Amino acid sequence: MSNLAAEPEFEQAYTELASTLENSSLFEKNPEYRTALKVASIPERIIQFRVVWEDDAGNLQVNRGYRVQFNSALGPYKGGLRLHPTVNLSILKFLGFEQIFKNALTGLMMGGGKGGADFDPKGKTDAEIRRFCVSFMRELSRHIGAETDVPAGDIGVGGREIGYMFGTYRKERNKFEGVLTGKGLDFGGSLIRPEATGYGLIYYVSHMLEYAGAGGWSGKRVAISGSGNVAQYAALKAIELGATVVSLSDSKGALVAVGDGAVTPADIEAIMDLKVKRQSLTAYSSNAGLKYIEGARPWLHVGKVDIVLPCATQNEVSKEEAEGVVAAGARFVAEGSNMGCTQEAINVFEAERKEKKGEAIWYAPGKAANCGGVAVSGLEMAQNSQRLQWTSEEVDQKLKDIMKNAFTLGLNTAKEYVKSVEGELPSLVAGSNIAGFVKVAKAMHDQGDWWSKSE
Asked: Which reaction does it catalyse (predicted)?
């Protein structure tokens, strides 16, 4: 990659995956997979385009739009669209690369991709967001389709934005098809889709708790970062199962429980309303049991915790914060965000896992723990293909099954390829990386995307 411009986020994601493959017995048993990794690390296609739109004052505005179509060996490209001023090619390549293996872990027929624009929805009116979405989709519509590439929402893209984009696609292409997921229920959306990533995260951690002999959620103190869709529904499900949620956060600071205080369902409902209005947590002060800490993430301010769930954005747990949550007694860390922990933080967790064995902190990567969102997007695609809508109970049960299978697959793959000593919890990050990679590599090989010298 030395001949390319620096892409720190993508390089981090690549190194995280490659290092776990190198430190397992995978390449020793299957040296030809080194070639597969070389091929899989380059996107099949990158689309970049300008997005010209008009603000409410009549001024012309322009942004950069992207779609990284990374890998289609397992199905149509699948991954979200992110609208945020930090969006660049490195971030979208990292997200698309993660998405390939995350989608593989769901067991559904989906490839990996990611897209978006460096547009900031905050401070924009509904009319300005609509005009941006229309302009963005007019160009993107040339490159996607129900059998080619099926985007979804991500940061800055919720049901409203998906609706604008779907309407534009339908008019531009004269097709009503399952081209986007996260749609409204009246035009092809799926029940449980808004809740899916957060619920799926909790279902995944439930299997971690059970395997480690830590019981259920009742009485557990749970620190959560973020306050968007994933954090909201993870918090609600954790509370429903008997846990005490002690934090939420956003880009400006953190809400942290004071004394016996806790985040309540009423708090979450009020914060949902704030987020719909594109307001920050600084505007929320209704619960006396919570304090707002400006400019902080929650990890070093929550006191004793049992479970840590990063649900905001990438690299939101540093080495120092990882050491802090270990010292605070945390036993489980699972990413609701993509690459929520820095590599240095992961190293802290993995070293603790090896040293303290069954009593150690146990880390689960986002590509496994947060795959519930894209899993239900896949289920939405299946419903669209059949022109049906399943009940919330049907979708929720399928989500539970997918999260159980993702956990079991990562667990068993780690046992197969990663050396461990008696009493040591298996490495979920290594097992999930290897399982997702092998599935994609086999499909690519069988379709002629790579081959070994002897073939």
From this structure: L-glutamate + NADP(+) + H2O = 2-oxoglutarate + NH4(+) + NADPH + H(+)
